[in-house]
Write a structure and sequence with these properties.
This protein has 2 domains: 153 residues, no CATH class; 34 residues. The protein is an all-alpha fold. Pathway: Lipid metabolism; sphingolipid metabolism; Sphingolipid metabolism. Pfam families: TRAM_LAG1_CLN8. One of its GO terms (molecular function) is sphingosine N-acyltransferase activity. It is a multi-pass membrane protein. This is Ceramide synthase 3b.
Length: 230
């Protein structure tokens, strides 16, 4: 109990003279609550399910264009013969193409394409949530009335979906293809989730939404590069 009171000490989270009692829902104002974050768990599970279905769809498309397909193999065999290649050259070419479809590469492709799809949707959703807000154009508005800033529905869902996504990445990190930057990736996911939770609890919602938009925009470029490598 003492630890809980110390953790939620007003001076640790809020500027003077504001106290938690001042951030109670009233007069049409709604404020961020820790209890709001419980929904991130089922949403994270939903995102994991979407990732699984998306991955199966990518695998199906990959198989249809794969050289394992008899029709495709027959077509390319006829084309290669017109190039006057030897049997050894043909086998070497087929082997190199099969190696491109090995499970590791396909799995990396699914993971990178899923993250890219999310970041693109997140950027689009972030712009929709912020384009009509004054703090999107004037950063001084970010702190107007802070911390007594009412929570908007668009901000709520923007935060919930972002936090759920990073929660789902943490759930999947052990199952994903292990990358060279595995440790850095793990720290990144934990740090992002922790910072989002802190900004939510301390009602840094406005600045948090701007940071998320910039963060996801840069991640789009990173995932495009990652997808090109596959």
């Amino acid at each position: 109990m003492v630890l809980n009171e110390w953790f939620w000490w007003d001076r640790l989270w809020l500027p003077r003279p504001v106290m938690w009692a001042d951030l109670q829902d009233s007069e049409g104002r709604d404020y961020a609550r820790v209890s709001h974050l419980y929904i991130t768990l089922p949403v994270a599970v939903l995102l994991l399910a979407i990732f699984k279905n998306q991955g199966e769809g990518v695998a199906m498309v990959k198989h249809l264009v794969s050289l394992e397909s008899p029709e495709c193999a027959l077509y390319w065999t006829s084309r290669i013969k017109t190039l006057d290649w030897s049997e050894r050259q043909v086998k070497r070419w087929f082997r190199s193409q099969r190696n491109q479809d090995r499970p590791g590469l396909l799995k990396k492709f699914k993971e990178a394409s899923w993250r890219l799809a999310f970041y693109l949707c997140s950027c689009f959703g972030g712009v929709l949530a912020l384009y009509d807000k004054p703090w999107f154009y004037d950063l001084r508005e970010v702190w107007a009335g802070f911390p007594k800033q009412s929570l908007l529905d668009s901000q709520y869902w923007y935060y919930i979906i972002e936090m759920s996504f990073y929660g789902s990445l943490l759930f999947r990190v052990a199952a994903d293809v292990k990358r060279k930057d595995f440790k850095e990736q793990l720290v990144h996911h934990w740090a992002t989730l922790t910072l989002l939770s802190f900004s939510w609890c301390a009602n840094y919602i406005r600045i948090g939404t701007l940071v998320m938009l910039v963060h996801d925009t840069s991640d789009v470029l990173l995932e495009v590069r990652e997808s090109d490598k596959q």
